[in-house]
What we know:
Elements: H1 2-20, E1 26-40, E2 46-61, E3 64-78, E4 84-96, E5 100-114, E6 121-134, E7 140-151, E8 160-172
Antiparallel strand pairs: 1-2, 1-8, 2-3, 3-4, 4-5, 5-6, 6-7, 7-8
Amino acid sequence: MKSRESVLLVTGAALLSASLVSRPAAAGPTLGADLDLGFPVSSSGDTGGGFGIRFGQELHVAPVELTPEIGFTYHNFSGDYGPKIYRGIVCARLGIGEVLRPGAFAHVGFGHFVPAYGDNQTAFTFDAGGFLDLTIIPFLNVGIHGAYNRVDADDSGSAYEYATVGLHAALVF
C-alpha cells in the first residue's frame, strides 16, 4: 500500500511541476473557436446552442499567458420566446500554467438582440467567465469554459441574461 501512495504522490508532484515549467517569453497570433450551450437566467426562452470565434495576440511570459482579443458570438435560444443574439466583443483572457492552464476572461461589446416577438435591438453587452485549457501541443490549446453573459436589451426594455458552458480550441501561430 505504501508503494501505491508513493507512486501517486510522485505522479502528482510531476504533473504539478510540468504545469509550471517555464517556456521562453513568446507572442503570437491566435485563432479560437467555441461551441456553447446557453441557459437563460431569469429571461425568456429555453436552452439553446451557440458558437464563437476569436482572434487575438497571445503574450506569453511563463507561466502567465495574456491574450487580448476580438470576436463574434451567436446564440439561438429555443422555445416560444427564445431570442437570437449576435455579439461583437473585445477584451482579454488571462491564464496561468503550462500543461493545465486555468484562467479567466471578460469581454465587452455590442449585441444585436432578435426576440421571437417584438423589435430587434442593439445594445451594450458583456460576459465574464473562467476556463481550463490543456496546452500539451505547442500550437493548439483545447479546453472547457463557463460564463455569465448579458445583453442590455430585450422586448421588455431590460437586460437579457444567460449562462454558457462549452468546449473551445485555439490555434497559436
